[in-house]
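Re-run with default settings, no changes from the original entry. Doing this only to confirm the output is reproducible before filing.
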Amino acid sequence: MSDFQAWMAGHQERVEAALSNALPLTSHAPTRLHDAMRYAVLGGGKRVRPLLAFAAGELTQADPARVEQAAIAVELIHAYSLVHDDMPAMDNDVLRRGKPTVHVEFDEATALLVGDALQSLAFEILAQPGLVENAAAQVRMLNSLASASGSHGMAGGQAIDLASVGKPLEMPELEFMHILKTGALIRASVTLGALCGKALDATAMGKLDHYSKCVGLAFQVVDDVLDAEASTATLGKTAGKDAAQNKPTYVSLLGLTRAKDLAEELRTDAHDALLGFGPEAERLKQLADYIINRDF
């Protein structure tokens, strides 16, 4: 196992344990809701967003215990979005991370409440007193996550996605949709991790944000490629659904070869954005490579 693989596996285990500790126990009422919350969050996923937060925290010499809390807050927002996206009113999917989606395993009303509760829990964790030494930085973290989650971020991107089914989009429109839908929360992950440590000046934060913008778009490009090429068993979710639903994707707009080339270009841009940071940025570079090279 490489040094990076060991680092990633260790942090994935840490995030899983922290999420398990943060989520309500199934023995506490309302038991069905708490059971569904744990079902939605635990035991699956690559935890890419928390990994980005930890990598950004290493860049600013942040206390890992603080980054851990920011990391699970972001992951709870991501998990809530998946629960809601899978529901019949949205993407109407029955499989997520290799198991039935929450509304299938439980019911639609419970799935709706799971998303609501996970979102609230994320902000409860991020707002805990003393999370970081600088109160202004903590307010900035809350603002960043809220903005990334709302109509100018993830929720807005999903709205554009739903409105775009069956419609041809030009490249700038597709990119704008994914900057919001996928990219906003990835950018927030990097921002939150960095804000847990030593303050960076505006120029350095700008470089980090450009890195995370490139990584966020690359993540979506690779997702589109995998949706077109990989099997349902490999993905753990329904493969080929974008094409079946006539959704605009990087593959439908550019073709497979050009989409793969674009992912590589974004990887290069992400690496270039980190020039000048030194060895502390190595994990961020490795995560960019992992995101582009992943095959499931």
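The chain has a mean pLDDT of 94. The longest helix spans residues 202-229.
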